[in-house]
Structures are given as C-alpha cells and as structure tokens.
C-alpha cells in the first residue's frame, strides 16, 4: 500500500460520517445530491454538502457538474471503491 492510499484510509477512519457516506454512495446506482442521502446519515444538508465536497477534493467521489454551484451531483469513483474495500475486509 502506498502512502497516498494510507493517508486516505486514515482520513476516512477519522470521521465516521465519511465512511457512512462512502458506503451509501457505493450502493447508489445513480448520481445523487447531498440532500438525497442526509436522512440515512442523520446530519444537516449543509454538513453533508461539505462532507461530499471534501471527499471529492480527496479524489474519492466524482462531481460531473462542477460548474453548477447550487446543485452538485456526486458519485463514487474507482479510488473511492478501493478505499472503501479496505473497511469491508
């Protein structure tokens, strides 16, 4: 395992909502808004939006509509699935 992946695992492990969000995103078969998954985690929409932006910045999620400032869509990418697999072993 390289240092970048180890750092991502530590980042996810340090916040339980990050891991929950990755698990939910992995189950989704479509693009989602932050508001689509807040009830499953139990946090406010603005906090979920910040969490998803952070996961995107870390390279674990993709945002196919970055120019839309108000309604951002997200989906898990291959790196996100690879990091999530570490927690499911």
Outline the structure in words.
- The protein is mainly α.
- The chain is 62% helix and 4% strand.
- It is built from five helices and two strands, in the order ααααββα.
- It has helices at 3-13, 16-27, 34-41, 45-57, 78-88; strands at residues 61-62, 75-76.
- It is globular, with a radius of gyration of 12 Å.
- The mean pLDDT is 92.
Which properties best describe this structure?
two-stranded antiparallel sheet; mainly alpha; 5 helices
* Tally of distinct domains: 1
Widest beta sheet: strand line-up: 1-2
As a whole number of angstroms, the C-alpha radius of gyration is 12 Å
Q: What sort of overall outline do the alpha carbons produce when their principal axes are compared?
A: globular
Average pLDDT rating: 92
CATH superfamily: Winged helix-like DNA-binding domain superfamily/Winged helix DNA-binding domain
């Amino acid at each position: 395992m390289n240092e970048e992946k180890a750092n991502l695992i530590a980042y996810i492990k340090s916040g339980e909502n990050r891991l929950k969000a990755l698990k939910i995103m992995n189950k989704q078969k479509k693009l989602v808004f932050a508001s689509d998954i807040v009830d499953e985690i139990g946090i406010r929409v603005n906090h979920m939006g910040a969490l998803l932006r952070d996961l995107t910045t870390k390279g674990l999620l993709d945002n196919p509509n970055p120019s839309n400032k108000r309604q951002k869509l997200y989906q898990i990418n291959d790196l996100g699935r690879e990091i999530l697999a570490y927690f499911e072993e």
